[in-house]
Design goal:
This protein is an alpha/beta fold. The protein is 44% helix and 9% strand. Strands 2-1-3-4 form a 4-stranded parallel β-sheet. α5 crosses α6 and α5 packs across α9. The longest helix has 24 residues, at 157-180. Mean pLDDT is 84; it is low at 1-8.
Length: 245
C-alpha cells in the first residue's frame, strides 16, 4: 500500500478556482499511467491560463473534499459546480484520470457535459525507470517535488517487477479502450515532454483548437523532476537481479 499523495491536496483550495466561462467550449481528459510526468504536464498546461485547471477531480480520496467545499450533496451537483470553478474563461475544462478514476466516471448515469471529451494519453518509453519511480513514490508518499518524502525507500526487485507488470496492464487498458471506441488521443511521451515541454504544450493546445490568447493568470506551482542518482543505481541493480533470475 502506497502512502498518501499530498500533491493533489495543494490544488483543492480556492486559490485554484477560476473565473469561469459563460459556455463550455472544450473538454479534454488526460489519461495517465503512474510516473509518466502527468503532474509536470498538467502544471505546464495550467500555467498557460488557457487549458483549465487539471487535477484528479474523480479521485475518490479527493472528490469529497471538493464536493463539500462546493456545497454539492451528490454527483449530479458536483459536476456542474466543478465546471463552474475549474473552467478557464475561454470555456476549456480538463481533468486527469487514471484507469480506476475513469471507470468510476463511466458509472455516472445522469446526463453531463463530460461524455465526449478529447483525449491525451501520457506514458513513458522506459518502463523499467518508470517502474522504479513508481516503487519509490509508493514508499515515500511524495508524487511530485511539491511534497516532502515521508520516509526513505527500500530497494525491492520483486516490487519493481510488479510495478513494471502493472504499468503494462495499465497501458493495455487504455489501448483497448481507445481502440474499441475509435479514439486517436494526443500521445505525450515523458522523455519528449521533459526534453521540450513548450513544444508538447503547444501541440496539445493546437489539438484542442485553443486560441493562444491568455484568459487568466493562475497561481503557479513549480514542479521539477524527482529522479536522483538513486534511480540510476536501482536500475543497474534491477538489471543485475533480472540477469541472475
Amino acid at each position: 500500500m502506497g502512502l498518501r499523495d499530498n500533491t493533489l491536496e495543494l490544488m483543492l483550495d480556492e486559490r485554484f478556482d477560476l473565473p469561469g466561462s459563460a459556455s463550455l467550449s472544450a473538454v479534454y481528459f488526460v489519461a495517465f499511467l503512474p510516473r509518466s510526468g502527468s503532474h509536470f504536464l498538467c502544471n505546464r498546461l495550467w500555467k498557460t491560463g488557457l487549458a483549465g485547471a487539471q487535477m484528479e477531480y474523480f479521485n475518490l480520496n479527493k472528490l469529497p473534499v471538493l464536493a463539500n467545499r462546493f456545497g454539492a450533496r451528490h454527483l449530479e451537483e458536483y459536476v456542474p459546480r466543478l465546471l463552474r470553478r475549474r473552467t478557464t474563461p475561454n470555456g476549456v475544462f480538463g481533468t486527469k484520470l487514471n484507469r480506476d478514476q475513469f471507470a468510476f466516471l463511466q458509472l455516472f448515469a445522469f446526463d453531463h457535459p463530460l461524455k465526449n471529451p478529447k483525449w491525451i494519453l501520457v506514458d513513458r518509453r522506459d518502463k523499467e525507470r518508470q517502474a522504479i519511480s513508481w516503487h519509490i513514490a509508493n514508499q515515500i508518499g511524495a508524487w511530485s517535488t511539491l511534497s516532502p518524502a515521508q520516509r526513505e525507500p527500500e530497494h525491492s526487485f520483486g516490487a519493481i517487477a510488479r510495478c513494471r507488470q502493472g504499468l503494462i496492464e495499465h497501458r493495455r487498458y487504455w489501448d483497448g479502450y481507445f481502440s474499441a471506441n475509435t479514439i486517436d488521443p494526443v500521445r505525450v511521451v515523458y522523455e519528449d515532454l521533459v526534453d521540450d515541454p513548450d513544444a508538447t504544450v503547444g501541440a496539445i493546445l493546437q489539438h484542442l483548437d485553443i486560441p493562444l490568447q491568455p484568459t487568466c493568470s493562475p497561481v503557479v506551482l513549480q514542479i521539477e523532476r524527482q529522479a536522483t542518482s538513486r534511480n540510476d543505481e536501482w536500475l543497474e541493480r534491477f538489471h543485475a537481479d533480472l540477469a541472475a533470475a
